[in-house]
Amino acid sequence: xxxxxxxxLARLKKLTKTSHIKNTQFSSRPNQPLNTKQTYxxxxxxxxxxxxxxxxxxxxxxxxxxxxIALEKKLKTWLIGKNLSQIEQAGKALTVASPEISLVHxxxxxxxxxxxxxHNVDASITCAKAAIAETGTLVLIPDQNxxxxxxxxxxxxxxxxxxxxxxxxxxxxxxxxxxxxQTMPSNIVFISSPSKTADIQQTLAxxxxxxxxxxxxxxx
Amino acid sequence: MSSNFSTRIKQALADPQLRxxxxxxxxxxxxxxxxAFSDEDEWETLKKxxxxxxxxxxxxxxxxxxxxxxxxxxxxxQVHWAQDGEEAxxxxxSIAQQHQAKLVIKGxxxxxxxxxxxxxxxxxxxxxxxxxxxxxxxxxxxxKPSHIIMPAIHKNTAQITELFEKKLGxxxxxxxxxxxxxxxxxxxxxxxxxxxxxISGVNFAIADSGTLCxxxxxxxxxxxTTAPPVHIALMGIEKVIPNIQALPTxxxxxxxxxxxxxITSYLNLISSPRKPDELDGPKxxxxxxxxxxxxxxSQDQELQSTLSCIRCGACMNHCxxxxxxxxHAYGSTYPGxxxxxxxxQLKGLExxxxxxxxxxxxxxxxxxxxxxxDLPELIRTLRHRRQATDTKTLSLESFVWFIWFKIHQHxxxxxxxxxxxALFRSLKLKAPENWSKTRTMPKPAKxxxxxxxxxxxxxxxxxxK
Lengths: 220, 465
Prior knowledge:
By secondary structure, chain A is α/β, with parallel strands linked by helices. Helices cover 30% and strands 23% of the residues of chain A. In chain A, helix 3 (62-72) packs across helix 4. By secondary structure, chain B is of the alpha/beta class.
């Protein structure tokens, strides 16, 4: 074990060094600074380009939009997280709207919920921590309240994003990350479209392994 | 060129279906890439940054790898070092045996192809299933990937429909790609649910935070690294980058060069196994750092830049030889230009040097490379080294080039030879048939260029007077 490590490092140390590690600032090209409105528009444009459904909502009506989506798409079983007031609000609105809608709370270990997660949920709703306009990307940090599988196994994934969390570029995000620099979260996921593949004769098909539909609610 | 390689090339060239599949796919990928880099200045800037990040990382591999190891350990990721494929395979096996695993699900990883992990685990009665759609198709037909990004690119929809019917007994409507993907999704979901171990590659590993970055579209990479209780990631030691600040540039270069996408559906950053208060994710994460010849390459100043590669596949997409013969003809894990320089270095020039013959030095790969690897120059360097070591097979060729070299070194000899050529210009020389089939034998001119220039300057100066 250590033998392999030492042997590899010994081989590597033979290489001649030319310099110290450069701490170059890798700013991607001089971005024209976008104003909030442009950033917002660009994000929607890019998300829609990549087949995400985008709804612009406000604090008062957003649960109505969610209920409407659930009814229109006949999404009956919703997977939701815990300890988040907005998500609880969404859950309440969904169950009040139709007796056919039920909730699955992700409140126990994956092993106990496995069957349900893979086979018996129609949709999930989670929150985004940030979004990147230049590529139309949602940044999710799964945790105990909203575990990793929530954005993975349900056929429909709804993401709630606050308009104030939209950034211009990936570079901007990593320069001021919405996570602590000391301890990286266990998992950070950048989502830019529904799951897809072009592995069969370059033909694009959605819903390869993850969600077939990605819906974004942007909260103004 | 050994008979095997040239036979494979001949077979590939004689297969019209294969050729049209590759032609179509390469045209598609090239166009998509071109659109993604339509801004020339941006392309140049990104390329320069990307090349600098990669070169710098290669220069500092020992420090970066030790930092990566330390950070991973701090995060609860177990780190293993493997000098070669055999060691890496045995590490995977021992982890699998500790967990009494019988089923392993794998996300796309060229490093695991390189060490032939599937076969190895199979021999120990552990089933290893590919979950990337392209890899799954290829595995179903007992084949190997023919492209590092799009493994099943050599097959068309009709061939895959037929394959599913034959191997799975499931028939789908003709030309219905969605139905085929649906079949794969249903079958593989069960595997994700059952697998005891998930294996993945690593696109980039961030040293200062101990983070593994995985780039993908399908979600199979995320499922392979989230659903099973144990995740094993295998990475070549060159894939390390210093910090997350370097990631955006490399991500842009990688996905745009590979498929023309500005970003993939998923970019997955894994820094730790499931923490006590978390509800999902693997309970164990293992990182295997694979050398398998890479450290040796890093010591070679001339060839070191081979390790800058981010495995985007742009060099093969732009290679006129790859486009015509496809990936399988190379007979190596990595096909195309990057395979031609990497494989002989990993496995030895004597054994794999013939791969270098399949190149016309047109330079397209070098222009397409997003991290500025001078692939044509590396191919030339390796050809020189091969020639220097190989005395048997190349003796006639070396002799001819030696004469050519001498003639061009001495002006008088050169003049004499061109005069001689002009004198015997009407002699009908016979060129090798393979060459002359598609070309006309050139005829030396009556007067050499030197002579023509001499008479021209004489008559000119005469005219002025």
